[in-house]
Each structure stands twice: as structure tokens, then as C-alpha cells.
Amino acid sequence: MRAVLLGLALAGAAAPAGAAEPEQLFEKGMADLAAGRLEAACPALRKSYRLERRPRTLFHLAECEERAGRIATAALHYDEYLDALERLSPPEQRDEAERQKLALSRRDKIDADIPWVTFRLPETAPKGTKVTRSSKASPDAVPVVLGVPVPIDPGEHWVRTEAPGGPPRDKRFFVNRKQRLTIELTVAQPGDEARMVRYSPPIAPVRAVLPPVVEDGLPARRLVAYIAGGVGLAGLATGAIAGAVTWGQKGTIEKNCGGGFCNAQGESAADLAGTMGTVSTVAFPIGLVGLVTAVVLFATEPDQARLGSGHPPRIAERPTPLIAVSASGRPEGYVGARWTW
Q1: Domain count of the chain?
Q2: Average pLDDT value over all residues in the chain
Q3: One domain for residues 34 and 70
Q4: Same domain membership, residue 332 and residue 227
Q5: What count of other Cβ atoms lies within 10 Å of the Cβ of residue 120?
Q6: Is 51 among the domain residues?
Q7: Confidence band (pLDDT; 50, 70, 90) for 306?
Q8: Do 174 and 275 share a structural domain?
Q9: Is the pLDDT of residue 235 over 90?
Q10: What is the annotated signal peptide range for this record (predicted)?
Q11: Whole domain around residue 36: which residue ranges?
Q12: DSSP string spanning 238-267?
């Protein structure tokens, strides 16, 4: 008899502790809500409402979800709260009058911002295909209603299709406030999983080895090639003209010079021929070096699509042609060219 009474006493002592849990969760949730700790407040209020379905808990849960940006969930809870008020007694309804006004106002305010998403399966989807969706805030998968707009919280979501006997197929999507979106779903057939191609991520990120781009969008290597080509053409043209002028003075020199002496006209022609000869001698090698440089730069220009792991070169580190020329005396001259890397 004592054992039976003791058991009853223990059961009676445990009952108040269980009854106090919803209230404790509610108070904790309200404290977190007041402090702005929404990710802690909403789960506490949700659990409190599951343990004891009180309208005021549901109202504050809707308030928490709204502040967290989950406006579709908040609208659902506001609707559930307003429906629950109709089942209360008149005195209880009077106690909820202020919250009722707030719920109606907030529900109308967020209504226009709620996103709506329509999910569609292809006509070829096997009969019995399951479609579920989840989100970061609600990781538990819930069934999806197909073919009609469904209110969804803004943010990132996942939808999964799974045909009978086939592998699941997940699709991630994002939806914003006020957005109307249609998601065309795909279904994996049995055997698709074996045919899936899996790509391994690269061991380390690779960087492109491409010529640097100057402000006008022209690669520096090509710019140098253009300059070298222009110098080469100018040098060859100058050498040809100077050579022609030198050759043209030959007859005048022969007529007006003899025995190592020249009259005024012969001396003038000799001076001009000497100067032009030096110019021609200098200009031809410069033109040749410039053209060869341009051809080499064009021929060895890297493919724009080629990638590598090296550091991108700076313009100052690129091969730079350096052409040094010196001339002395008349009519002799000296020309030199040096390529510096």
C-alpha cells in the first residue's frame, strides 16, 4: 500500500514540472525575442506552442518569424492565430483584442511581399514521383503541391524529386520578396546515378598566364610588336630612300671630282652622299631588327585561352627590345643592336 501511495505521489510531483515546461519555454522565447536573438526565440516559442496550444504563444511565434524575414511562415501563423480566436470564449476573446488588431494589421502588411512559387513536373515523370522541399530555416522536408502557386519564405531553398526506384535529384533555387517564380523540375530515371559524371575539384586554383592588358584593352606584348614593326618598316623605308639619294650623287661626283680634288658642286655631292650613305647603313639594320622582333612577338604570342599556375607578369618584367645605334665619321658608320630580356 505504501508503495502504491509513493508511486502516486511521485507521479503527482512530476506533473507540475511537465506543465511548467511550456511556460518556461515561452518566457525564454520572449526574452530572446526582446533581445533580438531570433534564431533562439523562434524555436523556443515553436516548441512551447507544440506542448500547449495557447493563442498568445502562436501570435508571438508569428511575430518572431516575421522579424526573421520568414514572412510566408509568419502569415500562416497569423492566420492560425486569428482562426484560434474564434474558438475562444467571449472573455478570452476580449483578452486577445489588442493582439488581434496587431495580427490583422501585420498580416495585411506582409501579404504583398510574400513570394509565390509554382512547381511543375514534366509530363514524362513516372507515376508516384515524390516532390519535397526544404530550406535552411526548415531543414525537414515537406511535400510540395504541384501546379499551383505556393507561398514560400524568401531566401534559399532546395526541392527534391524522387521517382519510384530511381535516385533522388535535388535542385537549389532562390526566391526574393514579391517574386513570382515557376520551377521546372526534372526527374532522374533508374540507372541515371551510374551514368552521372563526377568532377573532382582542382587541387589548387590556377591563374591565367595571359599578357597584361593596357588601358585601351590591347595586350602589352602585341603593343610592343606593333611598335617594333612600325620601327622596322620606317627603318627599311629610310634606308631605301637614303640609299637611292646616295646612288643618285654618284654621277655628279664622277663629273666634278678627280685626282683627289673636287670643285664646289662635287664636294657638295660628296658630302650629301656620305651623309645619306651613313643613314642608309644605319637605317637598314634597324628596320631589319624591328621587323624580326615584330614577327617573333607575333609568332610566340601565348594563346589567350591557355592557363597556368605562375604569377601574372607585370609589363616591366616582359621582354623589352633595346636598340642601340652609333655612327661616326664620314662616309663610314657603325650600327649595333642588342635584344635585352
Answers
A1: 3
A2: 78
A3: yes
A4: yes
A5: 13
A6: yes
A7: very low
A8: no
A9: no
A10: 1-19
A11: 20-111
A12: HHHHHHHHHHHTHHHHHHHEETTEE-HHHH
End-to-end CA distance of the chain: 105
Cell numbers placing 65: 518569424
> Which of 77, 111, 145 marks a domain boundary?
111
Distance CA(229)–CA(321), nearest Å, equals: 12
DSSP letter for 290, please: H
- The predicted pLDDT at position 246 comes to 77
* Residue 6 pLDDT exceeds 80: no
Is 257 found in the same domain as 300?
yes
Query: Is 321:293 a contact under the CB 8 Å cutoff?
Result: yes
C-alpha cell belonging to residue 78: 497569423
Give residue 15's pLDDT: 39
pLDDT in tens, 164-194: 988 999 999 999 999 999 999 999 877 665 5
Which is more confident, 74 or 19? 74
309 and 322 in a common domain: yes
Could you tell me which of 40, 75, 212, 249 has the C-alpha nearest to residue 152?
75
Q: Are residues 139 and 248 in the same domain?
A: no
Q: Determine, yes or no, domain membership for 203.
A: no
Of 71, 66, 55, whose CA–CA distance to 33 is shortest? 66
Instruction: Calculate mean pLDDT across residues 115-129.
Output: 94
